Amino acid sequence: MKLNIIPVKWSDEGVLMLDQRLLPTEEKWLTLRTYNDVAAGIKDMVVRGAPAIGVSAAYGIALGAKQFVGTNADDLAEEIDYISDVIGATRPTAVNLFWAIDRMKRTFEKAKGEGKSVSEIKQILIDDAKAIHDEDIESQRLIAQFGGELIENDSTVLTHCNAGALATGGVWGTALGVIRGAVDQGKKVSVIADETRPYLQGARLTAWELNEDDIPVTLITDNMSGHIMKKGGVQAVVVGSDRIAANGDVANKIGTYMVAVLAKRHGIPFYVAAPLSTVDMNCPTGDEIPIEERDTREITHVKDVQLAPEGIGVSNYAFDVTPNDLVTAIITEKGVARAPYIESLRKQFEQ
Ligand code: MRU
Q1: Which in 38, 97, 216, 329 has the greatest CB count within 10 A?
Q2: Which residue, by CA, sits nearest to atom 5 of ligand 1?
């Protein structure tokens, strides 16, 4: 394993993002020079995956603050509120976005309350965005360690979407972190990647990054997993999450619910790996999680090729919610939480 994929970086010129829309055929880095560019980068899926969106949002706020012209901290406060609104309007489901915005706002308020100058506050915000990024990578390392222990030697793990280094601050990933953790612990593991229609994060991104790290991966279409599970070809399912409700209901990429039902039917453990920044204790159940709906062209077309007749109805829900009773365990940087999640997750926050 190379363990060297980092999808977003801070630089003096702006926020650098590996353009995930072009993978796996092109590895191109974009320099996003304003907070508006960063917001557009999140909205347009240059960067995607809940923790990576959170890290990018923090960098976007730091960048916007850095470019603020003025010396009055009250004026900077207004600017940061405005920037936060712009970045917060990009994608609704991944709570890491709002978690990162809240944390940056609190960092700002604290520095302002301590009477720091505007130029000092700018540096404090840059430093905190970098800290959010570093902490995210460290969380994934711990998730890899805890989760790796749950994976048996000589097993095949099925995953859905991309919850890898590309979807986080980098290096390990959440679901793919668990797989990398198992490999790091000396286990022989191979992966089945659902292609993940319609945006194909599994085919384009999961397959690419596992291949980069020399972890054997087999790509399947989303409708094949039941057949393979029935034949005994899957020993565990591991997925990431965009938001986990206080009761352990899990929002993740559309199709995850279907996989969880199949896993239950075949007695296969269904693990969710996510940092605590993905757990929304203010959201009592999955019913309150906002589900993003995206452009229907993602369904009707592949690039410029039209697949369906014009004028028909099309739905494009980007996420679904898996009820907590289908979830075997939730792996975070604090350890392995099991049902009842309302208690085990709360305990993890208190640790
Ligand atoms: O629409 P995307 O590509 O941002 O969706 C990503 C997912 O659903 C991931 O599984 C989730 O964000 C967890 S990433 C560690």
Answers
A1: 38
A2: 49
Q: Domains in the chain, ordered, with CATH?
A: 8-141 (1.20.120.420), 146-350 (3.40.50.10470)
Q: Per-residue pLDDT tens for 197-225?
A: 999 999 999 999 999 999 999 999 999 99
Please name the residue whose Cα sits nearest to atom 6 of ligand 1.
49
DSSP characters for 65-131?
HHT---S-HHHHHHHHHHHHHHHHTS-SS-HHHHHHHHHHHHHHHHHHHTT--HHHHHHHHHHHHHH
CA distance 331 to 144: 9
- Residues near ligand 1 (Cβ within 6 A): 48-51, 94, 161, 163, 167-168, 174, 201, 240-242, 252-253, 318
Ordered DSSP codes for 290-335: ---B--THHHHEETTEE-S-TT-----B-EEEE-GGG-SEEEETTE
| Alpha carbons 305 and 258: distance in angstroms, whole number | 28
> How many whole angstroms from 168 Cα to the centroid of ligand 1?
9
Backbone dihedral region for residue 161 (phi beyond 0: left; psi -120 to 50: alpha; all else: beta): left
pTM assigned to the model? 0.98
Hey, which of 179, 200, 253, 332 would you mutate to test ligand 1's pocket, going by the most ligand atoms within 8 Å of its Cβ?
253
CA of 49 to the centre of ligand 1 (A): 4
∠ CA 53-191-55 to the nearest 5 degrees?
A: 10
Q: Could you identify the atom of ligand 1 that is nearest to the CA of residue 160?
A: 10
Q: pLDDT of 59-84, one tens digit each?
A: 999 999 999 999 999 999 999 999 99
In contact, 80 and 65? CB cutoff 8 Å: yes
Could you give the 3-state DSSP secondary structure of residue 238?
A: strand
Rounded distance from Cα 238 to ligand 1 centre (Å): 13
